[in-house]
Amino acid sequence: MQGAIFDLDGTLLDSNGVWKQVDDVFLARHHLTKDAEYTRAVTQMEYSASAVFVAEKYHLDMSPQEIMAEWEALSLEAYAQQIPMKEGAREVLTALAEAQVPLALVTLSPAVLYEAALKRHGVLDLFQLKMTVPKAHEQGKDRFLYDAVCRELAIPAAACIGFDDDLSALEAMRASGMTAYALQDMRNGDMKNLYSAAGFPQYSWAEIQGIILSDKIY
């Protein structure tokens, strides 16, 4: 193993509940009530469309741009001050960095969020490459994205391992030739059988650390 690629949300960070938290704070701040229509809209709509929906539904004296700005400020506060790392994640990053394994971060989150969180946890500088998934990859994390990341690291995909909590990302890693490991998370905890059937048993970071220390990875 010559390189390692990490997802952020739900993988390194225990952050997949952050947008519910942002919703709850925003609604409480403006004395608004969440209902089924709201939940359905904000989970299914594109980000800017959700802001338009909220402005119209609640007849707010705010533009969609102002609503998005407040959401973004709340999310930055959460990443910069509140969201914890998954237990054991720091130890795995440190072990790989000490073994001089190049590390890459590939995330859907913008730099302002991942930099704030990883800097607070003291691991930002462990990564040789950090990137938000480019808009050109309309389907999110696909095999072509991982091919490009491996080229950027100057490492063959077959010599890279990857960590993610999302099944489609794991399948894309495998399609590129990487070895992929699924991380347990709150949003996939009830899908263990589905992940296992696809060839991705779910691990905790403590289990991943055990695999690394037992020389099963490198």
The CATH class designation of the largest domain is Alpha Beta
Topology order in helix (H) and strand (E) letters:
EHHHHHEHEHEHEHEH
| Biggest sheet architecture | 6 strands, parallel
Q: Specify the overall morphology.
A: elongated
Helix content: 40-55%
Q: How confident overall, as mean pLDDT?
A: 92
Q: Beta-strand percentage?
A: 5-15%
Which fold name fills CATH's third level, the topology of the largest domain?
Answer: Rossmann fold
Indicate the CATH architecture of the largest domain: 3-Layer(aba) Sandwich
Strand pairing plus helix content: what structural class?
alpha/beta
Spatial order of the strands in the main sheet? 3-2-1-4-5-6
Poorly predicted residue ranges: none
The rounded distance between the terminal residues' Cα atoms is 5 Å
Strand elements, count:
6
Number of domain units: 2
Number of discrete helical segments: 10
Please outline what is shown here:
The protein is 49% helix and 11% strand.
Describe what you observe in this structure.
InterPro entries: HAD-like_sf, HAD_sf, PGP-like_dom2. GO terms for molecular function: phosphatase activity. This is Haloacid dehalogenase superfamily, subfamily IA, variant 3 with third motif having DD or ED. Helix content is 49%, strand content 11%. It is built from ten helices and six strands, in the order E-H-H-H-H-H-E-H-E-H-E-H-E-H-E-H. Strand 4, helix 8 (167-176) and strand 5 (179-183) form a beta-alpha-beta unit. Helix 7 crosses helix 8. The longest helix is centred in the first third of the chain and has 18 residues, at 64-81.
